Amino acid sequence: MQNGFYSATGAMVTQFNRLDVIANNLANVNTTGFKKDDVVIGDFERIFQDKRDELPLRNHTKEAAKFLNRSIDRVPQVVEEYTVFKQGGVKKTSNPLDFSLKRDDIFFMVETPNGVRLTQDGSFQINEKGILTTKEGYPILPESYLSNGGYIEIPSKGSLHADEEGNLYVNGQKIAKFFIAQVENMKKLQKEGENLFKVENINEEIREIEKGNYVAQGFLETSNVNPVIEMTSLIETNRLVEMYQKVMNSHMDDLNNEAINKLASVRA
Question: What's the confidence (pLDDT) of residue 71?
């Protein structure tokens, strides 16, 4: 295979992966509490040098790792995909079941069929049993959940009020408090869809945040996706894909055709 063709193909596949990330960001520009994703693009040589001593080489020697096909040294690769946890804007809704968090490293705790998950989407509702849940029907967890279990039950009569520490009151009587979870290492959070984040070990990776003003009732955090920046990235990535496609066509059509014709015309 021609070296240039391989490099252009690898670069175009990398841009396809970047397009997927950008498209997902744009699709969630109006999703409450959504956090945008981004990618880090590096070259194959750097990735190889970082990992070559760990490669399962056939002769089990580190020296064998030096015999690298130099033609693929600079092929772009997606080194890392990560989530940007910078807070989005805050909009006022005046809905007593809407809540916004004031820091980017704290989350509401939610119980799902797959286990406890975290979310920054504070658009809640009350189900038919009087339990406070997400829009998908997952119960929001109180501060007592890890020790005693249970959910947040809202009485049918009376008005719900929340203070800035996450305490919940109905008609002036405290009924519960949100478990506001602080994550020790944000890089360990994994997106799981429905605006939920998964962490492998809840007991080790999160803790209940100390007292402070962290909750705003009647407000929602908007997506942190900037549509102008994402559209600019989308245009840039599309142009790169077109450029790599032209390079691939040049290799396959023009260069190959010229090489075949010249070789065929050479007399023995």
Answer: 47
